[in-house]
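Technical appendix A lists one of the benchmark inputs used to test multi-chain prediction within the project. The record comprises three sequence entries:
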Amino acid sequence: MNFLKFFLIFIPISIVAEFIKLKPIWIFIISSFSIIPLAGFMGEATEEISVYSGPRIGGFLNATFGNATELIISFFALKAGLFDVVKASIAGSVIGNILLVLGASMLFGGLKYKVQKFNKKIVEVSSSMLLFAVIGLCIPAIFTHTANKELITSKYEWLSISVALAMFIIYLLGLYFSFHTHKDLYGSEHVENEKAKWSLKKSILVLVLCTLVIALESEFLVGSVEPMTETLKLSEFFVGIIIIPIIGNAAEHSTAIVMAMKNKMDVAIEIAIGSSLQIILFVAPILVFLSLLFKPMSIIFNEFELVALVVSILIVNRVASDGESNWLEGIQLIAVYIIIALSFII
Amino acid sequence: MNFLKFFLIFIPISIVAEFIKLKPIWIFIISSFSIIPLAGFMGEATEEISVYSGPRIGGFLNATFGNATELIISFFALKAGLFDVVKASIAGSVIGNILLVLGASMLFGGLKYKVQKFNKKIVEVSSSMLLFAVIGLCIPAIFTHTANKELITSKYEWLSISVALAMFIIYLLGLYFSFHTHKDLYGSEHVENEKAKWSLKKSILVLVLCTLVIALESEFLVGSVEPMTETLKLSEFFVGIIIIPIIGNAAEHSTAIVMAMKNKMDVAIEIAIGSSLQIILFVAPILVFLSLLFKPMSIIFNEFELVALVVSILIVNRVASDGESNWLEGIQLIAVYIIIALSFII
Amino acid sequence: MNFLKFFLIFIPISIVAEFIKLKPIWIFIISSFSIIPLAGFMGEATEEISVYSGPRIGGFLNATFGNATELIISFFALKAGLFDVVKASIAGSVIGNILLVLGASMLFGGLKYKVQKFNKKIVEVSSSMLLFAVIGLCIPAIFTHTANKELITSKYEWLSISVALAMFIIYLLGLYFSFHTHKDLYGSEHVENEKAKWSLKKSILVLVLCTLVIALESEFLVGSVEPMTETLKLSEFFVGIIIIPIIGNAAEHSTAIVMAMKNKMDVAIEIAIGSSLQIILFVAPILVFLSLLFKPMSIIFNEFELVALVVSILIVNRVASDGESNWLEGIQLIAVYIIIALSFII
């Protein structure tokens, strides 16, 4: 996190850049760079507040604010009508977490420790949940693509809202499950009775400030996507599925890798799977609901996104039933990610 | 089972309804309700006969008569030429068993017991068998849908009969496996040396009577499907994949849930997976063979059925390799089932 | 291996057959029969050389020459421009190894031993690797088939070469992993300090001779494919996916079955999975690189091959997480293979 601090310099630069109407590609890069440290501080502030609020509310705050950056970026993309970018970034966050974050954690952890073991039981609970969540999310899309496409759009909307509602209910039940009925299954090792580094007041201030600045930068970022992709002949889809998820998740990614290098593979895997779960069960439904304010967004993924999501299920399923990791597995996950990214580019 | 007894009243009602030509929707509902207790009595009668015949023949009888209700309903649908309904009800029975029955068992069991454990070994044997069976059953369909559709129909028939034959041979070998070469793997806990409640004569009489009445009611039911779907603008496909399997399996469903609430998750899971296996390896081939009497039915599932079947494989695979269940997993399975059903409706 | 010696008689017969221009079907059969013992001797010679070279170089030699026969046959098919046959034989080798070899091993082993256990840990490492490899190999094809097919051919080439390169790098890293950083995970039981039966000189001579004669026979074989398939109205695709893999892998197949019958299921499974891995990570990339000498071959599989590959993944995944096998599982794997083969014929 420490060296990321220096990226804060990109905040004023981005404002100047927007003001003097720099080329969209530069605005995109600069605002991306400025979001990365903000997402990091936001995470830290949430952690600090958790110390004051106690583990139960703290866990809820963490679960809710953990993907705030993606949510804010996606909200502005939604407002700008970039539905394809929004859906691509949902799918991209999941595959990025499963293939890139998990792969990098296994690689860097595996370079230090020959074989890294993790608690199969905990990983199995969340990987089962991820399996069900991805399947639920994908079913409308799979049926749409295989069906004769004579269905009426209004029916899609209705189906999307139902699925979003189902996902959101499971999200709430999942919180009840982890923080109430089965709380002993989790978090036993997180109790480490931390001391707060920041005062509660400072933490809340940082949280609010970061949210505001991320919102501003997200507006710059999203505004530059269309002109940039036109000039560079990149697809908006590629920006959505590869680049935005990397920006939005950078802070968590670095945490997962650091944990893996401390031989805490459980924590690294939980970050990757847990973050994917939040995207599907919390961020995606919220975006569907928010879209009703503008123009309803359906939850129908395209075939590329489906394939990428199903692949990530199969892999996390395999990883979970193993209980061990090594550097070669890490490289293979990263290789699958690179091959997917290459396929998106052409 | 006890309160289901009162449903027997629907048998005379259904005959009157048929006679006075009630609206098809009412005939459908009344005959459905009358089948539910009959299926239950049939199961009980089979169990009673097993007590007299000893475990080996008893197991065979159970395996053969377990899905007799579905077989009878499907036979009349076959005779009426409703091939889509027949195939949909085969797929629907499998996904109903895996998602709805297993889901409800995990949910209701999980509400009483925090974590329910089950014997991974036994579940793995049957879930492997289910995996192979579903894959074998789906391959002709997958190849048909991906192929350029210039294949001749006669070739489909030939392929369907071959697959049905392969499935049926594996069914017989599976019986030989569980009741002869590897019988100690199974049933060790079923030996509980039960006493018969009914005389052998009574049991056989009940079995024969139930079969006859179910046949009658199935004819009413199937006869009402076409006019009903036309009036309600429901697809026959929806009736086949969702409603008929629920009617045909109601008795087993309630047994599975009761077992789960007694913390016998092994038995609940075995009912769900075992019933699916019987549908694929016994009911489906028999229906293909019987269809030769009328007009050959191919075993080519449509894309929706394929997706639903593959999803249920993935999930049962995950569940089996876990060894534990809780209420949240149950809700998730049911949510996937509801999303599938919603997708079928639109 | 012993009775296979007599097949050497087919070498002179094939030369005569080619000279007197026998019907293509006969040339195909005779040259196939002559390749089977040669592949066996080649394997034996490699083993002998390994004894002299020590386990590290020996393992590398085994890994490299293990699929030399397929590589040579495919090279001549490549030279003859039979790209569909080459790609089909890559997919066919994988499904043949997973379904037929593993199935036959489990069946024949299971007939002698009631339940055969194997080391889950070792199998999981290679089955994970196979999962990632198949997914990586299939992604370009899946994306191509689901995409609107407006992509330019030159881009396919570029993607194929990238994927081939990624596979080959993982192959090299995999060798480094198994023979250097994690060598204790493997091979501990292979150390059995064998004595060489042949002198080093003889071994090298046999290796070189076999390679030359296989090359000659492969040229006969490949030359007969096109006229033969035309006469018999078989598809080249069927020859590629079913027949050539059986010829190329015959020697390994018999070894795997022999090992299973000695209750060494670990070794049998390792042969099946390891051979599949070599095909994907070594043979396929080499063939893509070699194709640049003639006309670039893309790595885009057709839908049939994709389905077959994905099915084999699912099955090996299931098998690996089980740790046990029996004759019924063996029969089921073989049944799935037969159903796939039947689907290819129609």
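Chain C has a mean pLDDT of 84. The first helix of chain C runs from residue 10 to 19. Comparable benchmark entries are summarised in Table A2.
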